[in-house]
Amino acid sequence: MKKGRMLYEGKAKQVFAVDDPGQALVYYKDDATAFNGEKKGVINSKGLLNNAISSLFFELLEKNGLETHFLKKIDDRSMLVKKLEIIPIEVVVRNIAAGSLAQRLGWEEGRDLGRPVVEFYYKDDALGDPLINRDHVAVLGLAAPAELDALEELGLKVNKILREYLAARNTLLVDFKLEFGRSGTSGAAGGKILLGDEISPDTCRFWDAVSREKLDKDRFRRDLGRVEEAYQEMFNRISG
Length: 240
Ligand code: UDP
Fold this sequence. Notes:
Bound molecules: uridine-5'-diphosphate
Number of helices: 6
Shape: globular
Number of domains: 2
CATH class of the largest domain: Alpha Beta
Strand order of the largest sheet: 1-2-3-7-6
CATH architecture of the largest domain: 2-Layer Sandwich
Helix content: 25-40%
CATH topology of the largest domain: D-amino Acid Aminotransferase, Chain A, domain 1
């Protein structure tokens, strides 16, 4: 497999063309950003750990019948994926109040929500990824109503699978962000919807079930120290 030209560079990943035009190579960088790019840094070995953690989670989801863009892990920092037309909606699923939801509701961080909460954010850096509802999605023409239903259903399914897997490993799944895309589409809507992007401590909040110690990117966002160690610990828990 030949690594071709770079198609896209994001804050934490690069995407390269490969021989097959229906596939792409995702390369995970050590670069870390927070607060819409205002805070920048490097987390040593993050690319390696996030590639390994994402690969494990995608394999787990596929094993449970959920289709993703993941094809295989190629090397330490790269995975081969199906090329998707990414839907510019961030699907956030939450089990415990934290981050922006704790602020919005005025709840203390750590309070159990009692049921999963699904939110949609408009993926637009210039706007700072604002929270949007179904009507906004329709007005912006981001996804058809049936597609949005599918995103919500898939988000809840991912939550159930990951939550149980992590609970068995003494870890709470507090919340996480997913991105989806259309594959094999010949136009705007209508293609099959697959889970894309990554599932890692960059995009999820993981807490130790007993101590509630944070094992995710909040250690970087909030300058808590032992950032790399937290990512490594999550890899150990998931792979063990
Ligand atoms: N998240 C993400 N990318 C974003 C925004 C949020 O991966 O651009 C993840 C974040 O890691 C957390 C969840 O989505 O697991 C909910 O984040 P929240 O809305 O609380 O925002 P934050 O407090 O991270 O700004």
